[in-house]
Sequence to fold (193 residues):
Amino acid sequence: MESFYTLQGEGKNAGKAAYFIRLGGCDIGCHWCDVKESWDATKHPMHGIEEIVSQAKKSNCNFTVITGGEPFMYSLNELCDSLWENKFELAVETSGAYPMSGNWHWICLSPKKNKPPKQEFYQVAHELKIIIYNKSDFKWAEEHATKVNDNCELYLQVEWSKRAEITPLVIEYIKNNPKWKISVQSHKYLNIP
Fold:
């Protein structure tokens, strides 16, 4: 769908310079998705792996984030291999709803209620990021926290449109459950892509 050089805005790598590769296509359909234009892959031109990697190299940044849409709707083996050969550090942001492909330095698992994650993601996720839209999402977060590996970092992220209402609840929840950290969408506050 698009690629761009910016700062990672959320999660463990927040504030880090990052080259984003956003793939078109998603059938998860979260009503609060902030990139709904990514859902229909046919609305975006196809790009070859050589072109994608060439553009990434021009950024002079070796940290690359593959996102979507839902990246694992596609096999990412060849893309990852090519980026690895060019010494990129690779991160992916996924719902985990499709089988994993590729080789990753960092996997951010953000499960969605419409399509649950494949079991394999719980074992390899470096970061579990749960979007908090309403109070029931705290229970959802805890259910997934029991499934991830012991080294996985746990993040709660307020859904942007409800930040005034939900942020105080997330802060209080984390104070009472300090295994969690807050993920703030700093790129939205800073008005960067």
About this structure: The chain has one domain: 2-190.
